[in-house]
Amino acid sequence: MATTVRIEVGEHGPVPVLQDFFRKLLADESLSGIMIPVHLFGGGMPMPTLVTDPAQLDRADPLAPAFPMSSAKLVSRLSKGSAGERFAVVMRPCEIRAFMELVKLNQGSLEEVILIGMDCPGAYDNMHYRDFLGEREPMAASADFHKALAEGRKPASVELAGACKVCEHPAPQGTDIVVGLFGGDISSGIQIMAASPRGEALLGAMGLPPQEPDGKREAAVAALVSEREVARDAMYASVQERTSTLEKLAQYLGSCVNCYNCRVACPVCYCKECVFNTDVFEHKPWQYLDWAKRKGSLKLPTDTVFYHLTRMAHMSTACVGCGQCSNACPNGVEVVELFRTVAARTQKSFDYQPGLSLDQAPPLTVFREDEYQDTVSHLA
Amino acid sequence: MARRIGVYVCHCGSNIAGKVDCPDVAAFARGLKNVTVSRDYQFMCSDPGQDLIIRDIHEHGLDRVVVASCSPRLHEKTFQKACARAGLNPYLMQHCCIREHCSWVTGDKAEATAKAKHIVEAAVLRVRRHQELHSREVAVVPDVMVVGAGIAGIQAALDVARSGHRVILVEKSPSIGGHMAQFDKTFPTLDCAACISTPKMVAVAQEPNIDLLTWSEVEEVTGFVGNYTVTVRRKARYVSEDICTGCGACLEKCPTKVLSEFEEGLGMRRAIYRNSPQAVPSTPVIDAEHCKMLTKGKCGVCQKTCPTGAIDFTQQDRREVYHVGSVILATGYDTMDPTPMTEYGFGRYPEVYTALQFERLNNAVGPTGGKILMKNGEAPKSVAIIHCVGSRDKNYHEYCSRTCCMYALKYDHLIKDKVGHGAEVYNFYIDMRCFGKGYEEFYRRVQDEGVTFVRGRPSEVVQENGKLVVVGEDTLLGTRLRVPVDMVVLCTAMEARADTTEVARVFGVSQGRDGFFLEEHPKLGPVSTASDGIYLAGTCQGPKDIPDAVAHAAGGAAQALALAARGVVSISPTTSWINPDICVGCKMCIGLCPYSAIEFDERRHIAVINEAMCKGCGSCAGHCPSGAAQIKHFRQVQVFNEIDGLLDRKPDIMALIGDIYETANRAEA
Amino acid sequence: MNQEFEPAILAFVCNWCTYTAADLAGTSRMVQQPNVRLVRMMCTGMVDPKYVIKALLSGADGVLVSGCHPGDCHYINGNYKARRRVKLLNEILPQFGIDERRLRLTWVGASEGNEFAATVNNFINEIRELGPLDVRGMAAL
């Protein structure tokens, strides 16, 4: 039976109590540091921070509904090669799944990383987090956010990020430790579960009061997932209608200026140098003129739809729907909605669930002799 | 610096010009960007044709050439060589086809000409992005390794050794000779197998150019054609080969008896053993799993008996590394175990034998001293031989094992000869395959000896009243049969060795659908494989009889020698190349490469192509999302340009026809 | 002037099998409609999905990828990789209205000249039925 413990939350709310928990964890001699969102400056965005001094966890806030970037890319940098010491990282389920995909691609390793997954009810995109915060003290705002959700209220007038509203993975999987926020009142207590032998060892050594799992968390997660699936399917239908021809797709991508921010933000777009930055797409002046003459007119920059179609071919099977692409787009292109819709079909066709298991190889990197015979045509 | 492209449109007599308006295509090409010279000519592949190109390269300073003629599969090298003679790197030439894919298959002249223009434009656009490439010459290690010392391996080894090259002959069993050493007589001449193979085995032992490594297996092969590094595991024999005289005294004293593999389970051997008194080498080996000294620390009688002190229980397996230029695989075959075919009773009825077992019964040093005897010590009065057991059978092997009909005839004769003319012999066959020299004549002879041939595969063998009853049907007469016999011999299929998949992986070769090693080409390349420098000899490539195995082995040896004798091998430059600045080290290409030609540089965390092993297939490049891996001469900019050139300049191809007529009219004016 | 739609089709064919079959079809003078133009690849495993996308966005109404039969690939298993890539593309492109019949994967062996000619002609007829992909008029891509 996996160890489940409970940390009591008092009058100061859940955030300090969690900080305390992480302080205790950091005290374990096997851990040299912990990566966790920290409010580094007064207001503003909590950024993933690698903390080694427990005292500096006093502004850590893993409950903040802020999601500035996918820290999967950061953990990749911390674990691509050996640090020589073990450290913990606190991540959302989508970040964990993205990191798993990166591990499969040799862009990170689980060896020295203790994964702590946070249950995630969603977050705001970068612009809207500011609106959500207003002038409030950030950690208090985080506590309010979760309180409102528990009471069935909308925490702020702004909406959660589009990606979060359709996310069916609010609970982390494949981690060492899980911080459970669903199915209970986190203003009175938070349950924390070990989910692996390494997690067991760490949690067991902390001597926290055990809690009998009561199934409430599972039920809450299931209910949330059902809700999200409805929203997700509505999103699919909407996107499919709006992109049912190449022309409509071009229109959907109408404000795209080829800044490639979506690619930079995407945790599973792992290339050091994107092919769209190489000579393959460095066209010559006379080529532009030739194409313009062929068609009568030519949108500049070229290769906008080409880029998105290529990115779909390269990473849609690994798309975990984190929404950082939309978050990063300066012109409000609904990237995650588009990519999730495409990904639903490509992932299903290869029966591939990104981030679920290291044993599932990315679909285009393996093959069998006898498979997908219906892909082959017999035209003779 | 602007490109200076020369375009050459070939008439190929009337083969192209009959449908494609070549002057018009040349004129069209002249109008393309950076085309300095554009000509059409009768026969570009002729000497004057090639001279056109050479002269233009010199006079017009051309730095790229396009030839539009026949299929590049015919003349790409011709025009590449012409460019080289002119001092232009041969890979700066693009050869496109306007004959096989255009003039010869298109009905309408206007359509053919329009298509030819697209093809030429694509080539002109592509060739702009061609880069200079240089073939590499690598020295070839003069030594050859032969893996497997059955008759094929022995033949190959002798052929190579006699040329003066050194051969390392690796054999996993204690002595050489393979399956042929288990046989009694060979068809159709009824030569004694030992008599004809022993001279060759002795020649191997005495040949100074052959290093014979028995009781050894290849563990690892790295490298590439001309430069293979092979790690061989020399298993511990526990008998010193240098000291042992082969007297055999130890063999008699060993108290431990084990079922003998060489006797196909019909006889026993000792824990210290050799396959036969004529074994080459004659040094015995000790079976470490059954020897009392090696498992329990007791006995040691052999060591006490040995007059020269050759027994050494402290020996360990050791590994030796060899450098060779090529490898000839002669690993032989396995016979199928017919136990799963329960209808024939093998393993249940004591008098049902496989073909190899029957060979051992006939062999003079076999378990019955060469007499055909049942397990009760009596000779059988009647024997049934069932053909195609596991062959020509969609439940086991669809192929024909090629040798069984002939050895069945051999058994017919041996039974009549050894047991007596009165012995009843029945062959249950589907077809009689007697294709070789003297084979059909031998069939005739055996028929005359009074053997009964029943055309029809038996459905089962049952036991009744102390006899084995073969239940079958004579399909020529249309009657069902129940034939009681004393002994049944199953012509078991010849199949690929059980470890073929692992061995294939070690050497970088593949298996065909039938499980045997895959030859380079089914008709024109039977002894080579898709991996340069790895050759095949004998039944490891497919079922065959001894004459064919020897011929096949000689062929493999010849090809290995061709490589060794030339001393250098040219590596094509159209291999993959991974840009170290772009590669992020995801390693996915490594798993996709069929030739294990990509290595991972841990320090730089990037993948690196081993150019000598890379065949330029494009699997890595077709996958790499960042375009770090690309095939030289097929880089993405080249293909993109080609695609651009092939597609319409205007939305409607038919609208072009109007333009074509217009252009033609203007040109004439 | 006859302005009926005539498809433009690109075929990415492997050097050892389908390209050889195309040569054979040519030598045997098997008449084909002129709408298919070949891009010579060493192996179907060399076909990058970007080539297909580039072809379709540059004015091809149909794309054929054709190589060796399973088990016969000159480079052992390039055709299996191509099969997965074509499958992926046929999951993505139809979502944007590119009929999956516009991208086809076939196996045509080196000795199958008549199969090559039949494949080409049948594919052209099919694409003609489907109509133009009509990106050629699109300024924004």
Please, could you describe this protein's structure?
- The complex is a heterotrimer of chains A (380), B (669) and C (141).
- Chain A has a seven-stranded mixed β-sheet, sandwiched between helices.
- The model of chain A has no long low-confidence stretch (mean pLDDT 95).
- The radius of gyration of chain A is 22 Å and the shape is globular.
- With 380 residues, chain A is α/β, with parallel strands linked by helices.
- Chain A starts with a strand and ends in a 31-residue tail after the last helix.
- Chain A has helices at 14-27, 72-79, 93-104, 126-133, 138-150, 162-165, 197-204, 216-242, 246-252, 261-265, 285-295, 304-315, 324-328, 335-349; strands at 4-8, 31-38, 47-51, 86-91, 113-118, 177-180, 189-194.
- Helix content of chain A is 39%, strand content 11%.
- In chain A, α3 (93-104) links the parallel β4 and β5 (113-118).
- Chain B is α/β, with parallel strands linked by helices.
- Helices cover 30% and strands 23% of the residues of chain B.
- Chain B contains 19 helices and 34 strands.
- A five-stranded parallel β-sheet of chain B has the order 10-7-6-18-29, with helices on one face.
- Chain B is elongated, with a radius of gyration of 33 Å.
- With 141 residues, chain C is an alpha/beta fold.
- Chain C has a single domain, classed as Rossmann fold.
- Chain C is 37% helix and 16% strand.
- Chain C has helices at 18-27, 49-57, 78-92, 113-130, and strands at 9-14, 36-41, 62-67, 103-107.
- In chain C, strands 2-1-3-4 form a four-stranded parallel β-sheet, with helices on both faces.
- Chain C is globular, with a radius of gyration of 15 Å.
- Chains in contact: A-B, A-C, B-C.
